[in-house]
Amino acid sequence: MATVGLRAWVHGRVQGVGFRYSTQREAKTLGLTGYAKNLDDGSVEVLMCGEPQQVDALLAWLKAGGPQSARVDRVLTEPCQPQTGQKGFTTG
Question: Which CATH code, of 3.30.70.100, 3.40.50.620, 1.10.8.420, 3.40.50.720, is assigned to 4-80?
Fold first, then answer.
């Protein structure tokens, strides 16, 4: 099956609440590669690459609010080329 890439920007109370690590755990469970990193504007950027169904599952989890300690106000997305050679899912 084809590998897809999706970049998401998650806005709300998503820094300082374990958001990146919860996203990493969820992504690894789904078998995705990519990263979750804090941005200067207070949002978190998430790059997810893998099977379309798994990417959709992580996106749905993000839109549903992520971990209980977070508050997600909006999620913006943009398709991207899957990262070649990327191993695992990191927090940056």
Answer: 3.30.70.100
Which residues have a catalytic role annotated? 20, 38
pLDDT in tens, 47-65: 999 999 999 999 999 999 9
| Single pTM value for the model | 0.94
Cα(first)–Cα(last) distance of the chain, in Å? 28
Given a cut of 90, is residue 85 above it in pLDDT? Answer: no
